[in-house]
């Protein structure tokens, strides 16, 4: 099992920046991908950014050029640097890791951290 804890959310004015952190603990092995998702009120959860292990980082079109995802394997941490924030970025942000268990892929989610961008 992998446990994920996000931090770094808060209230920021439009144009500002925030840095989200995701700390992982537990049985960390065979990680397929790490990423960030978000869910705004009344909307479905959507991909923000993902780093596949050994693959190419992928971003949602809406955040390209403004958000940067990074991973520190030594510390079991994933970060999301968010710049030039817009009110439409307001959402609960979730960290997501996927783990290869042979025939099964397990998906782990954090509890989420609220990001609110005021206009």
Structural features, described:
With about 120 residues, this protein is mostly beta strands. Helix content is about 0%, strand content about 60%. It contains no helices and eleven strands. The chain has strands at about 1-5, 10-15, 20-25, 30-40, 45-50, 60, 65-70, 75-80, 90-100, 105-110, 115-119. The strands form two sheets. Strands 2, 4, 5, 6, 9, 10 and 11 form a seven-stranded mixed beta sheet that branches. It has a four-stranded antiparallel beta sheet with strand order 1-3-8-7, with no helix packed on it. Strand 7 (about 65-70) and strand 8 (about 75-80) form a beta hairpin. The protein starts with a strand and ends with a strand. The mean pLDDT is about 95.
What's the β-strand tally? 11
How confident overall, as mean pLDDT? 96
Question: How far apart, in Å, are the first and last alpha carbons?
Answer: 40 Å
| Broad structural category | mainly beta
Q: How does the overall form come out from the CA principal axes? A: elongated
Our Rg estimate from Cα atoms comes to 14 Å
Query: Which stretches are poorly predicted, pLDDT < 50 over at least 5 residues?
Result: none
The H-and-E topology, N to C, reads as: EEEEEEEEEEE
- Counting DSSP H or I runs of 4 or more residues, the number of helices is 0
| Strand portion | over 45%
Portion in helices:
under 10%
Largest sheet: 7 strands, mixed
């Amino acid at each position: 099992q992998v446990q994920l804890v996000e931090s770094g959310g808060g209230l920021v004015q439009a144009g500002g920046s925030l840095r989200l952190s995701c700390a992982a603990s537990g049985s960390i092995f065979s990680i397929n991908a790490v990423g960030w998702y978000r869910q705004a009120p009344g909307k479905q959860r959507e991909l923000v950014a993902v780093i596949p292990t050994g693959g190419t980082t992928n971003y949602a079109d809406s955040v390209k050029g403004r958000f940067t995802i990074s991973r520190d394997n030594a510390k079991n941490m994933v970060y999301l640097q968010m710049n030039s924030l817009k009110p439409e970025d307001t959402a609960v942000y979730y960290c997501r890791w996927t783990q290869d268990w042979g025939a099964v892929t397990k998906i782990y989610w954090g509890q989420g951290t609220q990001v609110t961008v005021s206009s």
